Amino acid sequence: xRIRMNIHNIILLFSTFLGVSQMCGITTHxxxxxxxxxxxxxxxxxxxxxxxxxxxxxxxxxGCPFPDAMYPGLxxxxxxxxxxxxxxxxxxxxxxxxxxxxLPQPWTNDTEKxxxxxxxxxxxxxxxxxxxxxxxxxxxxxxMSKVNYHNQYGPxxxxxxxxxxxxxxxxxxxxxxxxxDQWYVPxxxxxxxxxxxxxxxxxxxxxxxxxxxxxxxxxxGEHIGAIEVLYPEYAEASPFLVDEMSSFxxxxxxxxxxxxxxxxxxxxxxxxxxTDKCEITPEKDNPIHMRCPDIDGKLSEMSTVKDTQxxxxxxxxxxxxxxxxxxxxxxxxxxxxxxxxxxxHLSPNLQKLVKKANKEKAQVKTRSSKQKDASVIKPNFFLTxxxxxxxxxxxxxxxxxxxxxxxxxxxxxxxxSLKGNYQVGRVYILYGSRSGIVHKTIDIDNIANVxxxxxxxxxxxxxxxxxxxxxxxxxxxxxxxxxxxGLGAIQYQGEVxxxxxxxxxxxxxxxxxxxxxxxxxxxxxxLAAGDVDGDDFDDLIIGSPRAPAGxxxxxxxxxxxxxxxxxxxxxxxxxxxxxxxxxxxxxxxxWFGEGVKVEKHGESTLLLIPSPTxxxxxxxxxxxxxxxxxxxxxxxxxxxxLSSAGPRQIINGTQKFNMLGRDIALGNPYINQSxxxxxxxxxxxxxxxxxxxxxxxxxxxxxIDIYNAxxxxxxxxxxxxxxxxxxxxxxxxxxINNDEKSDLIISSHLRSDDYDFIEGVxxxxxxxxxxxxxxxxxxxxxxxxxxxxxxxxxENADFILSGGEDKSRFSKAITVVGRGQKQLIVGMPTSNQGxxxxxxIAVFNFEI
Length: 848
Description:
The chain is α+β, with helices and mostly antiparallel strands. The protein has 18 helices and 37 strands. It has a domain of 336 residues. The strands form ten sheets. A five-stranded mixed β-sheet has the order 10-6-37-36-35, with no helix packed on it. A five-stranded mixed β-sheet has the order 12-13-14-15-19, with no helix packed on it. Strands 7-8-9-11 form a four-stranded antiparallel β-sheet, with no helix packed on it. α2 crosses α9. The longest helix has 24 residues. It is globular. 58% of the residues are buried. The N terminus is likely disordered. It comes from Dimorphilus gyrociliatus. InterPro entries: FG-GAP, Gprt_PLipase_D, Int_alpha_beta-p, Integrin_alpha_N, PLPC/GPLD1.
């Protein structure tokens, strides 16, 4: 039975809120600020920044979106638009810091609130730069326009600003943003700041508070409950927005938060030493180009780009819904004036509306939980962490690192942070045994045999990982990438570290560092291992899909071949350009190398290189054109040993946003077949099906095609059964029941049983189809005459697994370990069990 919330009345009730919030990304800015404040180690006058923010959260939340307050037409018909624009740039930062430095000591409570408020403003200034691609190339919206909007920045910008908030409210645990909490705006302080900045009174405190009130109401609208129903609309328009919102290297949430910490360091330096200690001028007013020589070094170390777009083109909103809202609800905001600011509170009437909406959501969640499929298997154990935002489980690989004959686990947390050292990343190694690895729920820091922590702030050590015998001495080595090394200089070149193996362990400091000297190289986002030159030693394959490679984000794949001389030379550094084999993408923004794999089955060894955002060009020169078919995806297949010859096979997607090749796996699940078979995912394919015997189109449901690797004929197709479930995001062919046939493991990491995108979001599923005589042939998930719903995926799977937690992106990474009893190890990198997006590992025991 399809569960439906009584959304209609709520949308009518709060449509005006949604309209207000379109002026900016209110939730996006607050979320970025919260991520940034968690690990800062800064203080002024003995006051810790984090403690100040948490003590005066009402001011910080108000400050995060504040620079947008005077943009919209509702704010005095847009007559203060230019002040809003000025508030986004470093001269205003300079003015607020000078104002703060001149306030009397010791600081009062109002001054502490002013500090918390302007830290929110500084967050907004730098986050907007990376988000809107201001003064830089390839920021978030700019890339979004290239990948999903035919290089049209305007439509991408329109969808990103509000759509980003829709995606964040839907995908993230934003319970810390209580829409009933008060805000504090230091309107009288800001009036004085603006007067000192302009040299005359250009705006007064009444205007400031009136316009800030719109943001306060916008926050309420975004968190009242109706915003979730818009998620499918934005997900359908831009898969990039959904998939890259947190992780994109330049302008994703994690990147924006990293830059906020950098900006706060410079702001703190100016608060202590004076604004003349940093480079802030009207000609250099972009905060990403601000440098403080005492803490940053020479200015020449930073790459700069002249600002070609300054204004954000925020639309002047004219909507009957908004005007109706102003007339009906503005009197329901209660203000409380203080000596230097204004507090905003919801009236009892609005508080009742919030309670009503929350009650409606709770009822839906209760009904949804009662209809959970009892046949879904839940984990036996979990590995957890309490390191907020670390994203434990982003990557998982297996191999014997201590030479005892048992497979060990390598689990990464690339966003792991320490106080004052943000996003350094961490890698955990757990040694295996005959019975597996994990036998109880425990904090991973208390069970890991080896812990490796990155040395570069914001490097994201652990983004890519592979086990490889690179020095060909018979002992496995560990390769770990940190693709964001160079963030602070806007270079993002990245590094890959090699930890050489010994008789009983691996080195705990890197023996070899691989470097890329190309801007935006992001080297090593994906690492793989396999023997690609035929010498019986695994080689290191480095996928860098965001690298320029002769254009913009074309991507490249390089092979660093195993070499016994490495053990003797003990190289300290190696330029990736010296690798003996390399191949590049040939189309801007195709992301060649995203998810690169080396797969071996029997006598076959294939190097598989996906380009998930490759497009079918309508122009001969492949310039962007509205007639292009975007993100159909491409899989390039090389046969090993590698040579100078071209690829053996290329498979192209045909459907818009197909993203063919997003993951691949090689094996043989069929009875009476000796060939290898290649499973190829198209996780955003549109699937035709039915619900309760009524026709239904499932946008971005996904499918997997299984090809005979010899003749590339399709033998089996397995389709997803839910809209935006990303069926096939992760694929694995492993023998989990010891019958010497490959079993197919498929993830749908965004899937939920909820059709309406209200609750149970991103819970995810894993479907297991056992190899052998029962393995399906043909398009069997569409052959559902005996069922009222199709595709009939769950009716045909041998096992269905769930992590049991919403918004956890269950099944982002998967591996199988063990000999007799097999353990399926599954990453849940956005789990909130140990803290916001701390991540965790789900462990399933299989005794078949």
